[in-house]
Amino acid sequence: xxxxxxxxxxxxxxxxxxxxxxxxxxxxxxxxxxxxxxxxxxxxxxxxxxxxxxxxxxxxxxxxxxxxxxxxxxxxxxxxxxxxxxxxxxxxxxxxxx
Length: 98
Description:
The chain is an alpha+beta fold. It contains 2 helices and 4 strands. It has helices at 8-11, 58-69; strands at 23-27, 30-35, 45-47, 73-77. A 4-stranded mixed β-sheet has the order 1-2-4-3.
């Protein structure tokens, strides 16, 4: 918790460039994004639990892919089962552009 209002950097997003390279598979009934390192090793892993925007946006998938490019096996489940918060273009508090 902060004693003051959030700075601009806290409410402004960054858009990553590229096309996600991981894959979505079902784990039980939950769609899950997997990104593998070049070696395909699962020895070192990262579990990404997304924010309310979910796992479907390319930005978070590109972040997962970057971890994989650095040698980590990445697992990112769809925590909201296909129903994440939708960004409204007119919502002035949601300044992230996708």
